[in-house]
Amino acid sequence: MEKTAKKTVISLRDIFVRFDGEVILNHINLDIREKEFVTILGPSGCGKTTTLRIIGGFVSPDSGDVIFDGEKINDLPPNKRSVNTVFQKYSLFPHLNVFDNVAFGLKLKKVPKDEIKKKVTKMLATVDLKGYEKRSVQKLSGGQQQRVAIARALVCDPEVILLDEPLGALDLKLRKSMQLELKEIQRQTEKTFIYVTHDQEEALTMSDRVVVMNNGSIEQIGTPEDIYNEPVNAFVADFIGEANILNGIMIDDCRVRILGKELECVDKGFGTNTPVDVVIRPEDIQITSPEDGQLTGVVQSSIFKGVHYEMSVMCGKCEIIVQSTKSAEIGSTVGMRVIPFNIQIMNKLLPIQSNTIETTVTYADESAQYFEFELEGETITVKDKYIPKGKRVRVYLPFDALSITGAGDGDLKDVYIESVVYKGEHNEIILESDSRKWLMLSDTDEQVATYVPLYFDFSKASFEILDSAEEKEG
Predict the structure, then answer these.
(1) 3-class DSSP state for residue 346?
(2) Taking Cα atoms as reference points, which of 388, 377, 460 lies closest to residue 412?
């Protein structure tokens, strides 16, 4: 028997939001169905809380539409929407007991006293707080206070409950137990829950679907299994669980080269000799004898994690993380095998040519051997190189020609760190300036969603004069 498709409760259509000149949501689209638990997941500054606040009516989009049950509600205030919100700070009324906190919204709606008592009693039983009616909220534990906040949000019978990192203030053990309780409350009440978090475990534990966000955009939407097993790009793979993310070359369909070795995979359609990102989860790597391995490496560390050993294995300069029920001796050489199904191939976040600049020389001094060009309102000076004024030139900067540390303000002063992905031997960093994105490598961890100066090392660059095919310099 076929399942009946659930109706769409909320649709966000081409939502765009800008605060103080910065793009917060970049034309996102999202459909949320009735009775499902949806988690919006992403790092700080990705736009997830703004998305929640737009659904709740606390923020109005600059453009785009919010559709609720088929009707546009852009201008509908929060108290007119069939939505209630539970925040990380529960905002309970300290002078009211548990019953009166939960009943507060019903009293505002002037619901009869008998009906208030019936609804509040039933809701307290649902959140496992029966018998706590007269208890002061100030004498409750963090988990109990959270359940009061959830009961208060549910008792007015909204169609949708919004939860903005409500477990963030709890300790680890309580947070884990509350994840299960929240999912059970959602199942019992059959409400649509939209949950915001940066915690991957929470998202995978509770959700029917996960919406992964980064830098104001939606990267991927899917079930927890889809997100974990079939990430669409390196950002999602890196953000959801542990993963070995390696640079690879797709030789042809079902054949990929990583770390100098050719491996069989199941992916097709990437073309031939195409640079790709390769994802292999640590638990999918089998430790073998060196002669039986597709890859070989030297064990650097082995840590017992309870259900498995986590080993760091160096393949040349590249670190591979392996999770295995058997440990290998530190310093020993081991083989590693991965079945084709567990090798995930993804398009790179940025193409290999991403750091190419096409520009016109605005000033040049042949005797001093330098020239200048304009880039995003800044004057960029290239030393020890002469190209005449007025010439059209293509400049290619390899990844190691970019850095975010140096003397002065940088060639570009305020560049946004969009993502940081560890590739086994270095971090691959994507930065966004006013009109484009850049790709660089770094041996240090950098903070996502911060602004940094960007420096160019033109001694590593190549130059091509575009005015005629004969004139080239490199």
Answers:
(1) strand
(2) 377
**Quick count: other Cβ atoms within 10 Å of Cβ 363?**
13
Name the percent of the chain lying above pLDDT 90.
64
Average pLDDT across the chain, whole number:
90
Cα–Cα dist 354/396, whole Å: 9
Q: Which one, of 154, 225, 166, lies nearest residue 190 by Cα?
A: 154
Task: Give the model's pLDDT for residue 471.
Answer: 45
**151 in Cβ contact with 72 (< 8 Å):** no
Name the class of domain 2-234.
Answer: alpha beta
CA trace torsion 95, 100, 103, 108 (10° rounding): -50
Q: What is the pLDDT of residue 85?
A: 83
What is the average pLDDT across 83-106?
A: 84
Give the start-to-end residue ranges of the domains of the chain.
Answer: 2-234, 235-347, 355-473
Burial class (CB in 10 A: 0-12, 13-18, 19+), 436: middle
Q: What is the mean pLDDT of residues 394-421?
A: 90
CATH code linked to domain 235-347: 2.40.50.140
Rounded to 10 degrees, what is the CA torsion of 402, 403, 409, 414? 80
33-69 pLDDT, tens digit each: 999 999 999 988 899 999 999 999 999 999 999 999 9
Q: Which of 113, 188, 178, 177 is nearest to 121 (CA)?
A: 113
In whole angstroms, what separates CA 425 from the centre of its chain? Answer: 22
CA distances from 79 to 75, 88, 91, 187 (A): 12, 20, 17, 25
Torsions phi, psi for 317 (to 5 deg) = -95, 0
The rounded distance, in Å, linking the Cα atoms of 352 and 399 is 9
Cα angle, residue 72 at apex, residues 15 and 149 outer, rounded to 5° = 80
What per-residue confidence (pLDDT) applies to 383? 95
Of 173 and 324, more confident: 324
pTM of the complete model: 0.83
